Amino acid sequence: MKKLLLISLILLSSLLTSFAQENNTFQVLAAKGNILLNGKSINLKTTLNTSQIIQLSDENSYLTLISKDKKEIIEISKKGSFKINELPKITLASNYEKLVVDALLEPETNDSVTKNRFQYVNKMVQKVGEKIYPIRTFLRSGKNKIFGDKASIIWHLDKNIPYKESVYSYQVRISNLDENIFFEEMTLKKQITFSLSSIKNLSAEQIFVVKIFPLDKYGKELGFLSKTSVDGDAIEKLSEQERKAISQELSEITKLKDTALAKLVEAHFFEDKELYIDALNAYQDALQLSFEAKEVQKIYQFFLERNGFAISE
């Protein structure tokens, strides 16, 4: 009887040791920069235990680790040497956090992912008369709602327009529904980011309109376009009541703060609420905070694709 009890205790001890070791094991979830473990570079297949020391060798390094049971996250975004068991860990609680983890762990070439990327595509091509407007923005046809103060607008040219090679810059115009212009800016990029509160008279408007025009190297409009022939994209601010409700929900979905993962969680949340401008902002913040880690770029690209924007020019 004593021998049987001893064997049972040994087996139980072995199981507990194995369980403890498993719970002390972490996997690389996302990485950018020169990162070493025992003098060797890590990759997404690298596993680490909490007694090991990880070294981020330059200022633009980023690392996220996830526990083997997928319940805890460690995020590092500064240069230095770190003992894993001394780093703060965040316990994943919300479905949005788990969605981000699943997206980061998803292989880049996966048929089920590819099949489902386009399920939300609903962007319509704007027409002017019988002709297709040559600029496609990320914005939806109809009204686009916005929660935050920052708006990032991205666009590209239709690949079939005959004067594509003549496009040198773009003019972005923001007005109200009565065509009163509040803001105009020329840019060489296919993106603009602006703060709503920084634009004079825009605070009084619940709805405003964004128009983008391609210009030649002399600053003249190209093609058949005129500034009055294009409807533009309407953006509607959430009401104060809607903003309070979103703020409340947002505060409950993650304990992560001001990190790349926090922004990815926010992005999934905003997309779920059909606040696509805010989702785009959050993804771009995540890219910046992760120093454009490949894994973050991947799920940002999936976001663009499933919303009908990632179309080659």
Descriptors for this entry?
about 30% strand; 19 strands; alpha+beta; single chain; five-stranded antiparallel sheet
How is the secondary structure organized here?
Elements: H1 2-23, E1 25-32, E2 35-37, E3 40-41, E4 47-49, E5 53-56, E6 62-67, E7 72-76, E8 80-83, E9 90-91, H2 95-105, H3 111-116, E10 127-128, E11 131-132, E12 135-137, E13 143-146, E14 150-157, E15 169-175, E16 181-187, E17 191-195, E18 207-215, E19 233-237, H4 240-252, H5 260-272, H6 276-289, H7 294-306
Parallel strand pairs: 13-19
Antiparallel strand pairs: 1-4, 1-6, 2-3, 2-5, 5-8, 6-7, 7-9, 10-11, 12-14, 14-17, 15-16, 15-18, 18-19
Helix pairs in contact: 2-5, 5-6
Question: Can you describe this structure?
Answer:
The protein is α+β, with helices and mostly antiparallel strands and 313 residues long. It contains seven helices and 19 strands. The protein has a five-stranded antiparallel sheet with strand order 4-1-6-7-9. The protein has a five-stranded mixed sheet with strand order 13-19-18-15-16, with helices on one face. A four-stranded antiparallel sheet has the order 3-2-5-8, with no helix packed on it. Strand 2 (35-37) and strand 3 (40-41) form a beta hairpin. Helix 2 (95-105) crosses helix 5 and helix 5 (260-272) packs antiparallel against helix 6 (276-289). The protein is globular. The chain starts with a helix and ends in a 7-residue tail after the last helix. Residues 4-22 and 110-131 have low confidence and may be disordered.
